[in-house]
Design a protein that fits this description.
Blueprint (H helix, E strand, L loop, with lengths): L2 E5 L3 E4 L4 H12 L4 E4 L10 H13 L8 E7 L6 H9 L3 E6 L19 H10 L3 E3 L13 H16 L5 E3 L5 H9 L4 E5 L1 H5 L23 H11 L6 E3 L8 H4 L14 H11 L6 H13 L7 E5 L3 E2 L4 E3 L2 E3 L7 E2 L2 E2 L2
Parallel strand pairs: 2-3, 3-4, 4-5, 5-6, 6-7, 7-8, 8-9
Antiparallel strand pairs: 1-10, 10-15, 11-14, 12-13
The structure holds (4S)-2,6-dioxohexahydropyrimidine-4-carboxylic acid and zinc ion.
């Protein structure tokens, strides 16, 4: 196949930050996606509807003229989130969900939840308002091996949340293991998952291929090959529980290439192209549209997009860095060739 036209996709998990980073990354997302779920882990975190609405305005300012892009806002769940903020969020058309970060699990997660059981009354309020809960599914116990933290979270915390809140809609964000895939598959229709391009493309060897590779470092960390294969099988299965969420997480190159580099892969520059490569390799390009353009919208009960994008098989070289607004961001597959590109 040389050309593929699909309904315009959405990105159901995206970090765009603020200021210069936002200005650099927003055009990349807006040229391919109609909408994106915007993660709230700013510093300070987006915890109120008022903050989400002002962040939304800042994002819209960064969308290039002529492109239609709708940011779908989320609020950061903290120990001090109030029931009244949850009902306010449920009534706000621009806020779609709450995000749960276990405290300390990842970038800017220190305001997260340290005792998930103590937050159960908040989960009950989300369930009552039919507000989806987006979960970063990793335990934060330092004693737990970093490669096991998702699986342990599934076995302990997630299973318990699911049992206690049978009506709560949950997205298990950026699943990285066969166990998380299995959990989502066997749960009811109200539990879904996003899958990133890096977890579909790489196994953990890519972290240490000929030297340390900071641009492949994200959280949850990439896992063994059999997990990658389970993710590819889930993404390309056509199952409506699995949908596109890049977790594109830009950091300045200087903070990635450091003695203690930040977690996050930047993929918005070529998101759909990266997924297309994975789906083609799995001989499943016919499943890309469901994964990228239908399943997420259906889960969030939003209309599917009406316009289309066309991917053409014309190889191009990803730049070594995007250097604008006096900063530099190194993208996934920097200086490497990609097979597909979006026809402009
Ligand atoms: O690698 C990651 N980067 N994982 C996350 O959960 C957060 C993200 C970020 O915000 O940089
Ligand atoms: Zn994320």
């Amino acid at each position: 196949m040389k050309k593929l036209t699909i309904t315009r996709p959405d990105d159901w998990h995206l970090h765009v930050r603020t200021g210069a980073i936002l200005k650099t990354v927003m055009p990349h997302t807006a040229r391919q996606f109609a909408r994106a779920i915007i993660m709230p882990n700013l510093k300070p975190p987006v915890t109120t509807v008022a903050q989400a609405l002002s962040y939304r305005e800042e994002i819209l300012q960064a969308v290039p003229v002529g492109l239609n892009f709708t940011p779908l806002m989320t609020l950061y769940l903290t120990g001090s989130t109030s029931a009244s903020e949850i009902s306010k969020a449920a009534e706000c058309e621009h806020v779609q969900a709450f995000k749960l970060y276990p405290a300390g699990a990842t970038t800017h997660s220190d305001a997260g939840i340290s005792d998930i059981k103590a937050a159960y009354p908040l989960l009950a309020a989300l369930e009552k308002h039919d507000m989806p809960l987006l979960i970063h599914g990793e335990v934060t116990d330092e004693a737990c091996d970093i490669f096991d933290r998702e699986q342990v979270f599934v076995d302990t915390t997630l299973t318990d949340i699911s049992r206690n809140f049978p009506e709560l809609r949950i997205v298990v964000e950026h699943v990285t293991t066969a166990e998380a895939v299995q959990f989502v598959q066997s749960a009811g229709a109200r539990i879904a998952a996003t899958i990133t391009p890096q977890h579909l493309m790489f196994n953990r060897n890519a972290l240490l291929a000929g030297g340390i590779r900071p641009h492949h470092y994200c959280l949850p960390i990439i896992k063994r090959e059999h997990h990658r294969q389970a993710l590819v099988a889930a993404a390309t299965s056509g199952h409506p529980k699995f949908f596109l969420g890049t977790d594109s997480a830009p950091h300045p190159t200087s903070l990635k290439e450091a003695a203690c580099g930040c977690a996050g892969c930047y993929s918005a520059h070529a998101a759909l192209e990266l997924y297309a490569e994975v789906f083609e390799r799995a001989d499943a390009l016919d499943k890309l549209e469901g994964f990228a353009s239908f399943h997420g919208a259906d889960f969030y009960r939003l209309p599917r997009n009406l316009d289309a994008v066309t991917l053409v098989k014309t190889p191009w070289k990803v730049p070594g860095a995007y250097s604008e607004h006096s900063l530099s961001i190194t993208p996934l597959k920097a200086n490497e060739e990609l097979a597909w590109q979006i026809q402009q």
